[in-house]
Design brief:
single chain; 128 residues; mainly alpha; Four Helix Bundle (Hemerythrin (Met), subunit A); 4 helices; 85% helix; 0% strand; disordered N terminus
Length: 128
């Protein structure tokens, strides 16, 4: 095989691996951010913290936007990729419902419990 072809193949493989690592790293970074934001909402709803509907709405809108971004970055078509896309799609819908419920602490508690269940279901299946 000519040296030029070999270099091209190595470059493509390196770019693919780097892209996969970036995607995984980006998802982990998003999940870390979500963990802190979820804790803030937990404090507002059950931890005795002051309820701030504007802050809750800001966080929930971020969850919705991030979940759409994640779905857009999933390029696979195998069963696992379809499942993850569906899970983040459901998460997006539940985040939107929670945004609508954000002005009311009681309504948000109900909507937010569905959102947390989405998180748990994915983490239970994918053990992360």
């Amino acid at each position: 095989m000519p040296l030029r072809t070999t270099r091209f193949i190595v470059f493509c493989l390196a770019a693919s691996v780097a892209g996969l690592a970036w995607g995984s790293s980006s998802l982990k970074s998003t999940m870390r951010s979500w963990k802190g934001d979820a804790a803030a909402i937990d404090r507002m709803l059950v931890g005795g913290g002051a309820f701030d509907s504007a802050e809750a709405e800001r966080i929930l809108r971020g969850f919705a936007a991030d979940s759409q971004s994640i779905v857009a970055r999933i390029s696979g078509s195998n069963a696992e990729a379809r499942d993850v896309k569906a899970r983040f799609g459901r998460f997006f819908q539940d985040a939107q419902s929670a945004v609508e419920a954000a002005p009311s602490r009681d309504k948000l508690k109900t909507a937010y419990s569905s959102l947390r269940a989405d998180c748990r279901s994915c983490h239970d299946v994918y053990n992360n």
